[in-house]
Amino acid sequence: MNTRSCLFCTTTLTEHAREHVIPQWLIDYLGVRDDDLFQGIAQTENGVLLKQRTHVAQSFVEGRVCKQCSDGWMSDLDNQVRPFLTDLMTGHRTLHALGAEERLVLGRWTAKTAFVLSHAAPLEAVVPEDHSRTLKEYSESLPVGV
d(Cα 63, Cα 5) in Å, to the nearest integer? Predict the structure, then answer.
């Protein structure tokens, strides 16, 4: 039997969190809960679509995240970024106005979201495991090369 582990830690997946690729709070903030999200992978040279899928926003999830990660550090990161990400989206703040700690939180949140998307999307190459695990383990930095 093939055992799978969480994308962000070494925990064997016994209880799947069904991590939302786009956090639920952001889906609600944008009012796109029932909207279709289109995913397409195209050739760079000519734009020909190679793969495509459509998901309802609230159902676009990745099952290879454990509940401890989803409900723990990932939820904490969502809660930390939420106040100033919404300010950035509305234009009430700019990236240049963010302090060093806020920029780190935004970078880590963006990386976390991109890493989850990379595994949920129909990509042939995904984010390396060590990047995902480093993001979880070291809250004071981003993985090298990110």
Answer: 10
